[in-house]
Amino acid sequence: MKSTKKVITDWENVPLYMDLPYVSMLFGFSVECLKKKAQKGIFPAKKMYGEWRISKEDAKKYYDSL
Question: Which residue, 50, 3, 62, 49, is CA-closest to 23?
Fold first, then answer.
């Protein structure tokens, strides 16, 4: 059976701003885990239009710090 998930292999293919489900797919953390980290100020996401979002630049910095 063929997987329908799109695999990101290059940061150039990542949008400028991402929601938590997208970041969850990239980083392998649950959405709830990322949300809790954002609420505690550990994960640099911000509320935008009622949803947690993170910029590609901030996501790259956070990923590199893991």
Answer: 62
Distance CA 25, CA 20 (A): 9
Residue 48 φ/ψ, nearest 5 degrees: -135, 120
Return the number of other C-beta atoms located less than 10 Å from residue 37's C-beta. 16
Alpha-carbon distance of 66 to 49, in angstroms, equals 28
Per-residue pLDDT of the chain (66 residues; tens, 9 = 90+): 554 455 667 888 899 999 999 999 999 899 999 999 999 999 999 999 899 999 999 999 999 898
d(CA 44, CA 63): 11
Q: Which residues, in sequence order, are CB contacts of 52 under 8 Å at separation 6+?
A: 19, 20, 34, 35, 38, 45, 46
